[in-house]
């Protein structure tokens, strides 16, 4: 393990200000991580309460106990059920924050396979090590077409088909156990002028698939709308164009395709008001001190 900083939160003040916190209100952080955003929410609560989710026990194990904080080890795709279990009913949440994807800890952990920087690591990539199939299992069982689609869609790699063929050849020779094996498989079709960028895209595509991130996001957003009180705020930080599109469409129209729904008289049926016409992004100073924040995009909406 190469542990320095667990995580540095992106767009911290912008996202917390966007929640317009009521000190006595009920709040949810669906991605606790290193707890940076959660601590900033807690700093504004008096009698209010914060429910914080993470599917990785590494994150929750480090949290400082606080009577105003309830930690939930679970996937945010089951948001409504977990909150109901804690006694929080639909319509009671005044603000929900999501800071999607993985933490620095995931990339910097030398044993979990999230980064091409640690070639010895087994290809796991599950945020919740107790559930689902590992990256290795997926690479060994997905069809060549499905591998190519994954690399194209989530990695935006133009040579996705050739990479998929290389992965299939590697697994046939029985050598796809570690991050280094994956790197060796795809390297011949990587553009040497942007080797790091493309390897990061390969690993990102696989991670998104292993953790079923797009589907979990859709499920969480639908339930978040149900759990929010009228006037409650939804603030979501994304790091990938596909997840940003899902969030943008949902906040604008209440569906993931972005089709405005109107009633018989042509009146807008949107259940949320988008408060950020354009996404909020880190300024040059934040990017300089925290380069990993550079792709962050914050969108905020208010339940009508
Ligand atoms: C970008 S980090 C959050 C960082 C956090 N905002 C902070 O200030 O330190 C994302 C965290 O969300 C968790 N996570 C990602 N997807 C999740 C899901 N579907 N359910 C629960 N936790 C999830 C990851 O394990 C990771 O710890």
Describe the structure.
The chain has helices spanning 12-19, 36-42, 57-61, 79-85, 104-108, 135-141, 144-155, 160-172, 179-186, 195-210, 213-227, 241-253, 284-289, and strands at 26-29, 49-54, 69-73, 93-99, 228-238, 272-274, 297-303. With 304 residues, it is of the alpha/beta class. The mean pLDDT is 95. Helix 1 (12-19) crosses helix 2. Strand 2, helix 3 and strand 3 form a beta-alpha-beta unit. The chain is built from 13 helices and seven strands. Strands 3-2-1-4-5-7-6 form a seven-stranded mixed sheet, with helices on both faces. It is 40% helix and 14% strand. Bound molecules: S-adenosylmethionine (SAM). S-adenosylmethionine binds at residues 7, 9, 31, 33-37, 53-56, 59, 75-77, 99, 101-103, 127, 216.
Order of helices and strands: HEHEHEHEHHHHHHHEHEHE
Helix proportion range: 40-55%
Strand content: 5-15%
Q: Report strand order across the widest sheet.
A: 3-2-1-4-5-7-6
Overall average residue pLDDT = 95
- Alpha carbon gap, first and last residue: 46 Å
Based on Cα principal axes, name the global outline.
globular
Output the number of helix runs: 13
Bound molecules: S-adenosylmethionine
Give unreliable regions as ranges: none
Radius of gyration: 20 Å
Biggest sheet layout = 7 strands, mixed
Structural class category? alpha/beta
Number of strands: 7
Short description:
With 304 residues, the protein is α/β, with parallel strands linked by helices. Helix content is 40%, strand content 14%. It has helices at residues 12-19, 36-42, 57-61, 79-85, 104-108, 135-141, 144-155, 160-172, 179-186, 195-210, 213-227, 241-253, 284-289; strands at 26-29, 49-54, 69-73, 93-99, 228-238, 272-274, 297-303.
